């Protein structure tokens, strides 16, 4: 089974970090979303937490192929070993261990515009605590955007690089 995973982080100095992600199949159909309020933390760490959360959920769900997209170039560089930043960090080590398991993980850096749905998930911080909130279907306020993207009407302009 193949999963397409997009992650996004929103960050504000007064509010802290929030992350979200969405899993889609190879045709762009939604099958799981998640959001988390992290609190005050470095934005790069929040991005790495979102990547870790998504990869762990994909592994537990039994997916054998994952295409991971992030709009954070530094996070992509760190987890694809093209950057030595945060070498030895437990979170980075855990992400690299997940990527190295018996499955196929491809990592892409994408432009911000490609993450509209995930951006809206990450902004859903009301009522969230540090635990994950899982969404088996798109929340009502973003369902139309999910449908637009599925139909191919949404903008998908972005740069892709950083493949594992």
From TrEMBL:
<dbReference type="InterPro" id="IPR053151">
    <property type="entry name" value="RNase_H-like"/>
</dbReference>
<dbReference type="InterPro" id="IPR044730">
    <property type="entry name" value="RNase_H-like_dom_plant"/>
</dbReference>
<dbReference type="InterPro" id="IPR012337">
    <property type="entry name" value="RNaseH-like_sf"/>
</dbReference>
<dbReference type="Pfam" id="PF13456">
    <property type="entry name" value="RVT_3"/>
</dbReference>
<protein>
    <recommendedName>
        <fullName>RNase H type-1 domain-containing protein</fullName>
    </recommendedName>
</protein>
<feature type="domain" description="RNase H type-1">
    <location>
        <begin position="17"/>
        <end position="124"/>
    </location>
</feature>
<dbReference type="InterPro" id="IPR036397">
    <property type="entry name" value="RNaseH_sf"/>
</dbReference>
<dbReference type="InterPro" id="IPR002156">
    <property type="entry name" value="RNaseH_domain"/>
</dbReference>
